[in-house]
Amino acid sequence: MQKMIKNQLSFIKPLIFFSIIFNTLLFFSCIDNMDLPSAPDNEIVPTGNKQYVEITPRWQFSDLDIDYVSDIFIAKDGRFFIADSVNNQLIVLRQSGKPADNNYDVLKNPIIDGVNISPIASCVDPRFIVYFVDGNDKIYAWNQFVSQTGITGIVDSMKYTNGTDTIITTPLKSLYSDEYTSIENTEFLNNESTLLDSITSPYIFYDPNLPKNIQVNSSYAFKTKKFIALAKSSSDDKFIFAMDKFNNKLAKITLVPTELILLENGQTIWTYEGVLDDFIAEEGTGGGTINEPTGMTSDNDGNLYYTQLGNYFGLHKLLSNSYNCVFNKDNHEIMQLDQFQSAIDVAVDNNASIFVLDSAANLVKKFTSNGSFDKFVGISNNWIRQPDTNITIFPIDTTEIIDGNDTTYSIIFDTTTTIKDTLILEYKNDILNKATAIAEYEDVIYISDTGNRRILRYTLSEDVNIQDPDQ
């Protein structure tokens, strides 16, 4: 019986050994076929096979005649509005990076009511009204479309029908009455040059000290304010949004008609002043609250996105109309508490993908519309090939009974295997330096790499496959 047991052991132990060897080799063969990308600062791995590649040439600050970029806004006609607060100007560029025509010179060193304005942020609404702020308590505007089309005059009054009666009244009175129907080409115009110049020059759009704004909210009207970011609404809405950093408030500003203008092309168009409507987000630490805001934008549907440095979330999205917070920390990756080091600005493309500029990390993180991480932008990546490596499997010392005379042999198995070369995709955030602004237009990402005094452009490439570096 003893010999039978020993013979069985002599058969089983080699099987155990070769099973160990087989599983070990199988493990290393899996490593050989596995892509091992690494990401800066966290373990997030980009999804998909496409990546963002840089478009050249780079736009150098010196070529654009700017010294600092605090904000980039791209209007729907492709014009770039770049806030250069150091030089007190909004620089307007074409998509080529070349300066726009001289019609935009009024935004260089604007002086409004005798005050020199240093724009730090801007936006352009669907009516082509340009809004900008300088970090104080007012919002400024310039009627781009009106100025570039040309004015025939300001409409003081018009002829209207009211039933069977024909009356003459002001456009504002008729605007708020459903009983009046205008009679075409019956405008009574004011052509005074001083008034026309006031329409075509930058002006104060929102003034908290105006009677209308004092009446709406007298407490807020007299508070110190610091507007640092603006966002437009969707095309059908008559309001804009302004971020007040000093009070941690997001204000909704309604466009109230002031003057009806007859343009040289025969079209009539309203000018507007801003009146406070409500606050759609206020100070706090939860989703949809504000704490040290830094940047803001909106998408085509009027949803709002803003970045901040305070606790607890670097990016918030508010749903249009209801202004409820869309993302939460339990269900959306973008709301992870350690997601950003310093979220300084945000951009959104036509697919509602979200691009968050993390200035301290020197990179941009792209998220899908549902808040899932997708890709890095503005970083370099290189495939690193790890050379062949010889690995010695730890010796296995076993004792076997191999003959009927109970002769004992000690056998040591010393096995060496080779791990084939492995490709590792390494990410480096070594391109950006103190980036300050981001914008998106027609699938191109624009980043103000302010520390290096340049604007970089990136587009999503379909020809580069990060899973196969040999392509």
Give structural attributes.
single chain; 471 residues; mainly beta; Neuraminidase; eight-stranded antiparallel beta sheet; 7 helices; 32 strands; disordered N terminus; disordered C terminus
Task: Describe the protein's architecture and organization.
This protein is elongated. It has 471 residues and is mainly β. It contains seven helices and 32 strands. 14% of the residues lie in helices and 43% in strands. The strands form nine sheets. Strands 10, 11, 12, 13, 15, 16, 17 and 18 form an eight-stranded antiparallel β-sheet that branches. It has a single domain, classed as TolB, C-terminal domain (Neuraminidase, 6 Propeller), CATH 2.120.10.30. It has helices spanning 2-32, 61-64, 144-149, 171-175, 193-200, 211-216, 218-221, and strands at residues 51-60, 71-74, 80-84, 89-93, 111-112, 115-116, 121-124, 129-133, 139-143, 151-162, 165-169, 181-182, 188-190, 203-206, 227-232, 239-244, 249-263, 268-281, 293-298, 304-308, 315-318, 343-348, 354-358, 363-367, 373-377, 380-386, 389-401, 408-419, 422-428, 437-441, 444-449, 454-461. The protein starts with a helix and ends in a 10-residue tail after the last strand.
Describe the structure in brief.
The chain is mainly β. It contains 7 helices and 32 strands.
Write the layout of secondary structure elements.
Layout: H1 2-32, E1 51-60, H2 61-64, E2 71-74, E3 80-84, E4 89-93, E5 111-112, E6 115-116, E7 121-124, E8 129-133, E9 139-143, H3 144-149, E10 151-162, E11 165-169, H4 171-175, E12 181-182, E13 188-190, H5 193-200, E14 203-206, H6 211-216, H7 218-221, E15 227-232, E16 239-244, E17 249-263, E18 268-281, E19 293-298, E20 304-308, E21 315-318, E22 343-348, E23 354-358, E24 363-367, E25 373-377, E26 380-386, E27 389-401, E28 408-419, E29 422-428, E30 437-441, E31 444-449, E32 454-461
Antiparallel strand pairs: 1-32, 2-3, 3-4, 5-6, 7-8, 8-9, 9-14, 10-11, 10-12, 10-13, 10-17, 15-16, 16-17, 17-18, 19-20, 20-21, 22-23, 23-24, 24-25, 26-29, 27-28, 30-31, 31-32
